[in-house]
Specification:
9 helices; two-stranded antiparallel sheet; alpha+beta
Length: 212
């Protein structure tokens, strides 16, 4: 880590203008492709089917084969680390040997890939409960390795672990300034894959997007 552990306290103490200035001074964080703007996300949210969460019966992470090898010989995790980092250098095995990563969930910067998880924005278990239980294995693999939508992002490992498989009515990133982007990514992913939302989940997403 390279010294942003006190960022949240700093942000709390700063007026809005100071926060904006600090944000401009920080290195760019992860930016997955295909993130809808908040207005588009609000429109997409109205079109999602509202339904109670399904059962976890039969769920296993193995039913979502992930970190598969791409055509360049690098796996999905390695591809996201290279995409989301700054000045990333990799060895012949695709694993990063240097670089830095700003986790947008909490504003922390890391220089060791081992300090990062690749978050499935819509967790695999949450997807299972909202429609993926009915998918084929190939469909679940595509979802778990999606490099073309806003479903994968490199973030601080313990923040990702605290999220678990919770939905936005239960968990949002610690950094409040990222809530609009996170809600937009969540809706964009659920819209792309035709997944359902619960009443509570939709309400939380609507409230967040209304404040963007």
């Amino acid at each position: 880590m390279t010294g942003h552990r006190s960022l949240r306290a700093t942000l709390t103490a700063l007026p809005l203008a100071g926060i904006l200035g600090l944000a401009l001074a920080l290195p760019a964080g992860a930016e997955p492709p295909g993130i809808p703007d908040p207005a588009t996300a609000k429109s997409e949210l109205t079109k999602l089917t509202v339904a109670p969460e399904g059962s976890m019966d039969g769920y296993s992470r193995e039913k979502f084969p992930h970190w598969i090898e791409g055509p360049d010989g690098c796996n999905t995790r390695e591809a996201v680390l290279k995409r989301d980092g700054k000045d990333v250098e990799t060895g012949s095995d695709c694993y990063p040997t240097s670089g830095s990563w700003l986790s947008p969930y909490d504003g922390e910067t890391w220089t060791k890939p081992s300090d990062l998880d690749i978050d499935h924005v819509v967790p695999l278990a949450a997807a299972w409960r909202s429609g993926a239980a009915e998918w084929t294995q190939d469909q679940r693999q595509a979802f778990a390795n999606d490099l073309e939508g806003p479903q994968l992002i490199a973030v601080t490992d313990n923040v990702n672990q605290s999220k678990g498989d919770q939905t936005p009515d239960e968990w949002m990133p610690p950094l409040a300034s990222y809530h609009c982007t996170y809600a937009s990514m969540w809706v964009g992913t659920k819209s792309k894959y035709g997944l359902t939302v619960t009443d509570a989940e939709k309400s939380a997403l609507q409230k967040t997007l209304d404040g963007c």
